[in-house]
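sorry for the late reply, my laptop died twice this morning and i had to redo everyting from scratch. anyway the thing you sent over, i finally got around to it. pasting the sequence first so we're on the same page, its 441 residues, then the predicted structure underneath. double check i copied it right bc i was rushing
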Amino acid sequence: MAKRSSGGPGGARPVPASVSRREVLRGLSAASLLAAAASGSAVARALAPSRTGPRVVVVGAGAFGAFSALSLLRRGARVTLLDAWGPGNSRASSGGETRVIRGVYGADRIYVEMVARAFDLWRDNERRWKRTLYHRTGAIWLVTGPDDYIRAAMPLLSERGFPFEELTTAEARRRWPQIDYEGVRWVFREERAGYLLARQACAAAVEGFRSEGGEYRETPAEPGPLRGGALSGLRLPDGSALAADAYVFACGPWLPKIFPDLMGGTIQPTRQEVFFFGTPSGDARFSEGMMPVWVDFGPRLFYGIPGNEGRGFKVADDSRGSPFDPTGGDRIASADGLRAAREFLGRRFPAMKGAPLTESRVCQYENTVDHRFILDRHPGAANAWIAGGGSGHGFKMGPAVGERVADLVLGRAPVDPFFALSRLSKTPSGAGRPGSTEAFS
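ok and here's the structure:
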């Protein structure tokens, strides 16, 4: 019989600040109102608070960088956001079509809290931008191996108001008969889980950032020299320099190249392959209306996402791939990777056996040795901050990471030891959670 938890209260949600009509009219002349009416972005800039805060440059417009820039802007900073190829580009760790959003994180309370906050922020930004980026499909974990990781998460999910169910395989088979449950011991279902539109979300965040008064430039940048314990500025390709009061480097897999002495042995980009398969014509069983996000939770973790806005039935192996160059690496999926995905697909979803490959992607994880993020100050520069090490599971938390980074830069919060750079000098290579239970996206 299914065991269900509705979770506890999700915590108080912040009330967004509003601007009354009288305040708008007092602050704007009739002429400026007429000019603002010509453009939605101009209206947003007109209604934005006057910013006299520090000048901050954020390098990298992926999930960590774009939302850090947006959060800094909303806290009154004057922000310039840079990216070499644009938000959600095909080289970026935040590129591609979709990412899973879910709450299971073993006993790591901090991640469950961040996911809870991220859910609220995704919803708030969707309302602001009038766009749907989060698809609530639920997620099922098909438990074929040890289940300590899921069991440890259950009380934390309840505390944060995440509903879940424990299902026998017989119960799961009645709900999702398109799955072959051979080897599955039991099934865990997260109700609020689903998927996010990855590259679209990055583009939306940058659009929102610009509409609220931020400056965005599509250009690479390199850190200048350190002088007196501070970063002196950024060097741009045209030979010019860009100076600010503070700098945030959210450069994903490029962090080891930007800071080789500091990050060279700290983050390892790995090649990860993703496949999309065509579903049978007229068969809705593998669409998001009838199929949730799924995780085959065993010694070798596969996961997948239905629908993907018509891209196909997504299947990915979470095993860490070979080292990968995010700039120059060719992004052609391997025959071995496709063979493994097909074999798994035909075994777990029999009606999909022999399904045609419709698309494939090669992306990368930017792994720290313990698979935790890095959200910390550069040890040699008091005005430079690093936000990276997403390790394959950071995208969903982008908005919550952005808030944390903004509070660090503006001196509103201390560095959390869980995300501190210093911890990595004490962590042996390969440490962290067993398997790949934290990382999949």
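The chain has twelve helices and 23 strands.
thats about all i looked at so far, will dig more tmrw
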